[in-house]
Amino acid sequence: MTGPRPTGDRLGRLLNLVPYLLARPGILVSEAAADFGVTEKTLREDLELLWVCGLPGYGPGDLIDMALDDTTVTISHDAGIDRPLRLTQDEALALVVALRMLAETPGTGNRDVIERALAKIETAAGDQADAPVEVRLPGNEKRLDEFRAVVERGHALRMTYYTAARDETTERVVDPMRMVMVDGRAYLEAWCRRAEGTRLFRVDRVDAYEELDEPSLPPEEAVPHDVSEGVFRPGPELQLVTLRVGRGSRWITEYYPVEEVTRSGDEWVVTMRVTDLGWAQRLLLGLGPDVTVLGPPELLTRIHDQATAALDQYSTPGR
């Protein structure tokens, strides 16, 4: 498997799969794949993902279960997906805030659809959806207009920028080149004098900025990125990370670009490229014992050292 499939298409298919299969126990996998317009291999991958979906708790009786063999599939436990959804106050509020944030995101397509869905949920939730929360993203339209104006005026920019991959905030002076929109997010493409290279800066991660009087003068080697297939384009120059992944963490193969997935029973061996081992270290520590790092050795050492340091904190008296 190379790279993720369109998330929206798969989510819609997964939401339809369970009621479809409940109404057709023992259906041929090939027939179900034909009805959904996908290959049999893709449908089997969807069914494997459904195995780790269900209700909070994620133990026996909480997850969707099925009988899947070489030719047929039958849902044996639907984990309550056939019952009408009842949102708690916290769930209703979280969903409303998420939709408000999505509606505020610059470049989001089908904004009218989002607003109609938000209105329906707010109406259904009633007082549960009332909250003193006003969503405003840092990368709003006003900021985008200001950045576009800086690009048009041809001025350099000083900014404070948060780099999520390294979990650090830095001060930079950049020579703006253009504004681009990728997957609903706004980016400033510029020559970074600190990194001495062309970089894409997410507008919502710019903490502060100041337009300078000096002109923007990107050097000749400042070549724009090809973002036709997304911002992250893993290549052989990046670090290769190899993981043994349990069932509960297979979702990372959908959320992050991966180079290869080798299946062996309930465990998968996954290889992926990363720009920074520090980012991989934080991700994998958060996944816990469901993921085992097979390489590179430097990443193994990093995770071992950080885990050991954390355990030492527990054994220190007075802490």
TrEMBL record:
Top-level taxonomic group: Bacteria
Q: One GO CC annotation, please?
A: proteasome complex
Occurrences of domain WCX (ranges)? 240-311
**Which of UniProt's keywords are assigned here?**
Proteasome
Q: Where is the WYL domain?
A: 144-209
Q: Which residues form the PafC HTH domain?
A: 9-122
Q: Which InterPro entries match?
A: CBASS_pafABC_assoc_protein, PafC-like, PafC_HTH, WCX_dom, WYL_dom
Instruction: Say if the entry is tagged with keyword Lyase.
Output: no
PROSITE patterns in alphabetical order: WYL
Name of the protein in its database record: Proteasome accessory factor C
Q: What is the lineage of its organism?
A: Bacteria, Bacillati, Actinomycetota, Actinomycetes, Micromonosporales
